[in-house]
C-alpha cells in the first residue's frame, strides 16, 4: 500500500482519482494548489505524486521543479490537458517520470502509477543481476563509479548524485556496457523487459539529456554515436 499525493484543482476529478486509488488499496493525500502540495510534501513522506499542471498560484511546472530540487527520486506522474509534444517534452525535462493527458481512463492511470511504484522499488538492472548472484544488496561499482542498490543514487569519484528512477535505470543499462556503444533499441528493450512502461523515442532523448546534465563535471559522460546509439565513458 502506497501513500499518493494528488495535486489537482478540479474537485470532482480529485475526488474521483482518490476513490480509484483507495479501491486499489492505496492511501491518498489531496490538495488543490501548489502551496498546499508544498506543505504536504514538507510534512509527509509520500510514495508518488499525481500532478496537474494548470494549478492556481504556484503552477504545476514550477511545483515540479521545486519537488525535483528537494525530492530527487520521488516518482511524479503529470495529469494534464496539455497534450502537445512540446508540453510533454517540457514536463519530462522538468523532472516528471511519466505524462498522462486528460481525459484518461482509470485503467491506464492505475497501470502507469503501478509501473512508477514498481520501478521506484527496484534497483538498477545490472544491480539486480548482482543481487541475484550474491543474495546481497551491496553497491555495484566500477572504478570511479558506484551504484547504490537501495535507492536511485550513484557516486562518481566519491561525489553523490541523486537521480530519478528512470535516469538511474538508464545509467544502469549504459554502465552494463561501459565504453561500448549501446543502441537505442537495446535501451528500450531492457527497460520494457524490466517492467517499465514503453516510452516514445523522443522521450528517451529527454532522459539522456537530463542524465547527461546531472553528470556534468564528474568525469562521467554520455556520448551520442550518430546512427548507432550511446556510449558511457569515465575519463
Features:
Rossmann fold, 9 helices, alpha/beta, four-stranded antiparallel β-sheet, single chain, 2 domains, Arc Repressor Mutant, subunit A, five-stranded parallel β-sheet, 235 residues, phosphoprotein, Sig_transdc_resp-reg_receiver
What do you see in this structure?
There is one protein chain. The protein has 235 residues and is α/β, with parallel strands linked by helices. The chain has two domains: 3-120, Rossmann fold, CATH 3.40.50.2300; 125-234, Arc Repressor Mutant, subunit A, CATH 1.10.10.10. It has nine helices and twelve strands. The strands form three sheets. A five-stranded parallel beta sheet has the order 2-1-3-4-5, sandwiched between helices. It has a four-stranded antiparallel beta sheet with strand order 6-7-8-9. A three-stranded antiparallel beta sheet has the order 10-12-11. Strand 7 (145-148) and strand 8 (153-156) form a beta hairpin. Mean pLDDT is 82; it is low at 122-139. The modification 4-aspartylphosphate is found at residue 52. One of its GO terms (cellular component) is protein-DNA complex. Residues 3-117 form the Response regulatory domain. Pfam families: Response_reg (PF00072), Trans_reg_C (PF00486).
